[in-house]
Amino acid sequence: MILMLACGIYGAYQLWPERDALAGVAISVNGFVPVEMPGGVARDAILVLAPRHCPSEQARRTEALAQELIRRGIPVVRGDSFFFDVADPTPEQMAGIDRAVEVFKRGAPAVFVNGMAMSNPTAAQVVAEYRATLGMRPVN
After folding, report:
1. Span 46-56, mean pLDDT?
2. Are 28 and 129 contacting, i.e. CB atoms less than 8 angstroms apart?
3. At residue 42, does pLDDT exceed 60?
4. Short-list 74, 61, 56, 33, CA closest to 120
5. Model pTM greater than 0.90?
6. Are 116 and 12 in contact (CB under 8 A)?
C-alpha cells in the first residue's frame, strides 16, 4: 500500500505542470509584467511579436494593433522571434527572461514596452504602458 502511494505521488509530481513564470509577479496597472527586454530593441520603440504573413486571427489582431500604434505616432518594431543579448545573466535577469518567454508563449501579439510585456493587449493598454514607462502623462 505504501509503495502504491509513493508511486502515485511520484507520478503526480512528474505530470505536474511547470511553474508559471508569471505567478506572483507584480503587474502594472495596464496589465504588463516586468521582463528582460529582447536584444536590439530601442528604448522608445514597442516590439510587437507575431507570426508574419499568417492569415490567423492572431496575425490580424497583431496587424490591427501595429497600425493603430503607428497611427498614434508610436514607433513599432515588428518581429516573429526574439533573442537576449545577456552575458553571464544574474538571477533577476534569468527571471526576466523566463517571464518574457512565458508572455511570448501565451499568444500573439506579444508586446514588449521598455522592460514590460503583455500578451494580446489592447492598443489603449500599450499606449498607456508606453507613456508610463517613458514618464509621460496619460492621454484620455
Report:
1. 81
2. yes
3. yes
4. 61
5. no
6. no
The pLDDT > 70 percentage for the chain reads 79
C-alpha cell at 62: 497583431
Alpha-carbon dihedral of residues 37, 42, 43, 45, nearest 10 degrees?
Answer: -100
In this prediction, residue 51 has a pLDDT band, given cuts at 50, 70 and 90, of: confident
